[in-house]
């Protein structure tokens, strides 16, 4: 069986059951003037991983392996936005309000879109998710089942919130999860470090972590 060099030990990869999930690489989280920046965050921490995320996407495409994108967003009428979620964050600029790139985190708005450099191509699945985890109130589980996917490589933002939440959801559903370390990021470096430690603690209790180059080297031989 093929393996990817990983922590806390090698990841036993099955290329015919492997997919890449790119979490929430959206303009509102990565560009100046977006929702992330409005909360006082340094968005340059997010944009610096774009080249590594792009390399992963291209590698999976070249190998003929599925690439799935997620976007955190809500319906225009806000019917899927709990008040408890809307009431947190920046009290002067909330989800659904008009921002520099349209209504914040609303489906179809410019700021909700995936960064152009990482945009999905025809045939790639895009999951619009109202929560932090990509399985909640979405069709992701059905999509993975239809494609025969049992192993997931994760990239995207933020490491400690939407990425880790989705990995935990996937882990509970029986998927083997691998986080690409240089293709994920947080606004807070200490949060990323803590999330990585939690994910691979106690013998990969949530999943594995690996370097982008190790993942690409493996799928090049898929």
From TrEMBL:
Keywords: Hydrolase. It comes from the Bacteria. Pfam families: Isochorismatase. Residues 19-207 form the Isochorismatase-like domain. The keyword Hydrolase applies. The keyword Hydrolase applies. GO terms for molecular function: hydrolase activity. SUPFAM superfamilies: Isochorismatase-like hydrolases. PANTHER family: FAMILY HYDROLASE, PUTATIVE (AFU_ORTHOLOGUE AFUA_2G08700)-RELATED, PEROXYUREIDOACRYLATE/UREIDOACRYLATE AMIDOHYDROLASE-RELATED. This is Nicotinamidase-related amidase.
């Amino acid at each position: 069986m093929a393996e990817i060099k990983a922590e806390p030990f090698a990841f036993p990869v099955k290329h015919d059951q492997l997919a890449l999930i790119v979490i929430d690489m959206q303009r509102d989280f990565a560009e100046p003037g977006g929702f992330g920046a409005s909360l006082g965050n340094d968005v340059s921490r997010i944009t610096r991983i774009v080249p590594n995320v792009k390399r992963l996407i291209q590698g999976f495409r070249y190998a003929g392996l599925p690439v799935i994108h997620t976007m955190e967003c809500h319906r225009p009428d806000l019917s899927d936005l709990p008040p408890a979620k809307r009431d947190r964050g920046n009290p002067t600029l909330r989800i659904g309000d008009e921002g520099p790139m349209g209504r914040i985190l609303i489906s179809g708005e410019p700021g909700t879109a995936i960064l152009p450099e990482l945009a999905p191509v025809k045939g790639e699945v895009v999951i619009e998710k109202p929560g932090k985890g990509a399985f909640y109130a979405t069709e992701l589980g059905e999509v993975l089942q239809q494609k025969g996917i049992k192993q997931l490589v994760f990239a995207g933002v933020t490491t400690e919130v939407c990425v880790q939440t989705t990995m935990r959801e996937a882990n509970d559903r029986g998927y083997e999860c691998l986080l690409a370390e240089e293709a994920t990021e947080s606004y807070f470096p200490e949060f990323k470090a803590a999330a990585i430690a939690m994910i691979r603690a106690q013998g990969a209790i949530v999943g594995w972590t690996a370097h982008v180059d190790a993942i690409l080297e493996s799928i090049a031989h898929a």
